[in-house]
Amino acid sequence: MTDSYFSDIAPIAYEGETSDNPLAFRHYDPDQIVMGKRMEDQLRFAVAYWHSFAWEGGDPFGGPTFERPWHPQDDMERARIKADAAFEMFDILGLPFFCWHDADIRPEGATFAESLRNFEAIIDYFGEKMESRRIGLLWGTANMFSHRRWMAGAATNPDPDVFAWSAATVKTCMDATHRLDGQNYVLWGGREGYETLLNTDMGRELDHMGRFLNMVVDYKHKIGFQGAILVEPKPQEPSKHQYDYDAATCIGFLRKYGLENEVKLNLEQGHAILAGHSFEHEIAVATAEGMFGSIDMNRNDYQSGWDTDQFPNNVPEVALAYYHILKAGGFTTGGTNFDAKLRRQSLDAEDLIAAHVGAMDVCARGLKAAAAMIEDGRLETAQRERYAGWDTSAAQAMLDSDFDSIFARVLSGDVISTPRSGRQERLENIVNRFV
Ligand code: XUL
Ligand code: CO
Ligand code: CO
Prior knowledge:
This protein is an alpha/beta fold. Helices cover 45% and strands 11% of the residues. Strand 1 (33-34) and strand 2 (37-38) form a beta hairpin. One cobalt (II) ion is lined by residues 268, 270-271, 307, 309, 339.
């Protein structure tokens, strides 16, 4: 590429809350210490290659609206131009990570072998670019939902040849993730579900998916990949019913197939909403089970009812998410991946930068608010007090007893329950002091 895509945009700096500069951070100060760590190390931001560089602005009613120098995305030269633009944006934003699907970064070949050659050439190109920069790979993943071969699923496909193709594809994506020192490997089962039970053997499909994920874990150990394996729940879209409905469903699945100590969760804000949950609910389910891994940060439109993947812009919502993440000790291998895309009328290079700047600032504000709520301690104290009855030895002994002894105690009149306020509004008022 002769001219750079983001040519006139300077690297984004932290200028503080009084800044009027639309392309400056007002809250994201990477070096500010929040709960003992640099903000950059708490948030661990990542750019999603698919939304920012592979999506062309189409929707179900119309084709591409964006005209980028790397369109159409069907040859290797343009794949390199796209990579040049991506790394230019990483430099401008100064964030620490990015994420990709194989199909985002390379043109599809006529055969598996040709697609792989294309993919490996771009992974080499990424490797060269990453040598001279701080940017790392938060996670890699395989796109096993766009091409028509995956229309009936990947690991859950009724055709064993598609299962084979899926296994070979994930192997190559895990190899590439390992090679680029990725922190995690993600599996989102975009078509692992069904449209109608009339043609679907659900028990068999779930067994195949369980076996597949066990092979992923075996392969991780075989190649010595140190990162975490993460699955990403989503209840529907594109499949009518998706097997990985939400965090609780995934955890049940992982336990059934003996994977609870090997696989964690990548939770997405918009997917939580689609499942009828809040984002913090999903995070709390995962942290309670020790299976929290990483987040896909975005926001859903609350009226439309589909996965709109907008950039986050709701500080109170984001603050509660980070509150639960910080309470559980913060990220380890995971981070905050912006699984978010521009609206299709946002045509300019500057829109891409502004979207990320705004999102990073919203997350920084949310993180600071979450840390302040924890440091303040009133929410934590109120919760502890609510369960204080359980701190007595009698209450603990009850957990080791049985129904007959408990019944005898209740019958003797020793047990007097006095209902107490849950104080929800008072707690919500406390939250509102910080967000
Ligand atoms: C789709 C989605 C994916 C996964 C990675 O809704 O969230 O982009 O994050 O495959
Ligand atoms: Co999504
Ligand atoms: Co996602």
